[in-house]
Amino acid sequence: MDSGPFYPRDRGWHPPAYTPGYKTSMTRAPSRPLVALGSTLSEETGPVFGRDMLGPRDNDLVLNFTGEPALGERIIVHGRVLDENARAVPGVLIEIWQANAGGRYRHRNDGYLAPLDPNFGGCGRTVTGADGTYEFRTIRPGAYPWPNGVNDWRPMHIHFSVFGSGFGQRLITQMYFEGDPLIARCPIANTLAPEAREALVAPLDMHRAIPMDALAWRFDIVLRGRRQTFFENRAEGL
């Protein structure tokens, strides 16, 4: 079966490693030419995660930490994982982590003054179905300040981790929320070209909202090709 034409990668889609507006990039950016290292068989094939490793509440961040409901605006985040030809990618392990409704992570190094929610752990996971679909129920995360500039704030966002057929095939990105005015002010988001940044913004999806319960946002993830989602840890995609 013909898999279709090869899509050339647009190198301008990805930001430069050295971006002074994003302060920590100044120390993280490589100072020497990059060297490509081949992966081993173990990195490409294992370990593999299956549905039998998932619990019934793993994709429900509202309840999966203590069994009692977390505080905040309940939302649904859903979408599909697709290849460069818009074909579904089934059996993909997706993990997410995020701040709580007040903008604070459950992490010992998070010193933001917002309170911790005793019933919110802030992480979940699921596996895409045969049609590439996934879904999470969670709390809309709050914005929070960070020590980049004098008054820089991160917009509301959810971190996504996407695994391929093995642990070494992992992609990481962030999802933003449509209409958030802090996106345009964020030094991290602004390292991307406008088209790439827009691909990380999930639109409101009232068709999947639950009346009197939760709004919904749709976030599709494209692994390769000209419409690839930007992945912060591997710019070339899976």
From TrEMBL:
Family recorded in the similarity comment: Belongs to the intradiol ring-cleavage dioxygenase family.
NCBIfam families with a match to the protein in the record: protocat_beta
Keyword Translocase carried by entry: no
GO molecular function annotation: ferric iron binding; protocatechuate 3,4-dioxygenase activity
Matches recorded under Pfam families: Dioxygenase_C, PCDO_beta_N
Keywords: Dioxygenase, Oxidoreductase
SUPFAM superfamilies to which the protein is assigned, alphabetical: Aromatic compound dioxygenase
GO biological process terms held by the UniProt record: 3,4-dihydroxybenzoate catabolic process
Name used for this protein in its record: Protocatechuate 3,4-dioxygenase beta subunit
Source species of the chain: Rhodovulum marinum
Coiled-coil residues: none
Region of interest: Disordered: 1-21
Domain Intradiol ring-cleavage dioxygenases: 45-225
Lineage: superkingdom: Bacteria
Domain Protocatechuate 3,4-dioxygenase beta subunit N-terminal: 7-37
